[in-house]
Amino acid sequence: MSRIQNAFTRLKAAGQQALIPYITAGDPHPGATVSLMHALVAGGADIIELGVPFTDPSADGPVIQRAAERALAHGVSLRQIITMVAEFRKADSDTPVVLMGYANPVEAMGYEAFAKAASAAGIDGLLTVDLPPEEAIDRVAILKRYGIDPIFLLALTTPPARARAVAELAAGYVYYVSLKGVTGAANLDVGSVATKLAELRQYIPLPIGVGFGIRDAASARAVAAVADAVVIGSRIVQEFEAGESGLAGRLTDFVAGVRSAMNAPRA
Prior knowledge:
Radius of gyration: 17 Å
CATH superfamily: Aldolase class I
Number of domains: 1
Strand order of the largest sheet: 5-4-3-2-1-9-8-7-6
Strand content: 5-15%
CATH architecture: Alpha-Beta Barrel
CATH topology: TIM Barrel
Distance between the termini: 34 Å
Mean pLDDT: 94
Number of helices: 12
Helix content: 40-55%
Number of strands: 9
């Protein structure tokens, strides 16, 4: 059983949902990433989504775009990020790590080379924003051969045929984009999320995480009532823009507040 499966099994037994924070690797500089990953775990992160910076992050809003620009200014590469995860694994052998980004860096490295190196470093999953299931069959086979879970996006507009295609390929969990637009958008409608998740669960046996539009403990708690996991990205990355001083502590405190709200008993 993979680390991702173990995490969801443990949480389900405890009647809890996964908290999945996102940060961009190499932001604010490459030397900080590993310690910030540990800070997220200290706050209660169950899975970490580690962003791979890319020059054309078309699905990301301005906050994460700026994070990618800061990382790329330091020359951060996919190979360096794999090394960061290997360093993280020296002190944490349990927390799943999912790389999230775009197809180009992985294509440039080669899927076989990437999967082999990622597996050796302790990476558990890959979420490729711009890789549709129709084009992913051969790539998914390579990832699964090395024990890397391929994670796909689903959306409000995802038709049943696409959901079924994702169900056949995905592993670990799937990521439901809760609203139209880019990361950091607002106007989260939890009722509409609940309706769509009920539909998707007809086709998707895996846990479903919800991201986009979750900005605080209250919205995370609301989403946790209907989803298997809560993904928070832009709000966390905003902490980076307040400066590096005290950043690790701020991340731990924010994640801990969200975790506490998600775990609080419901009336």
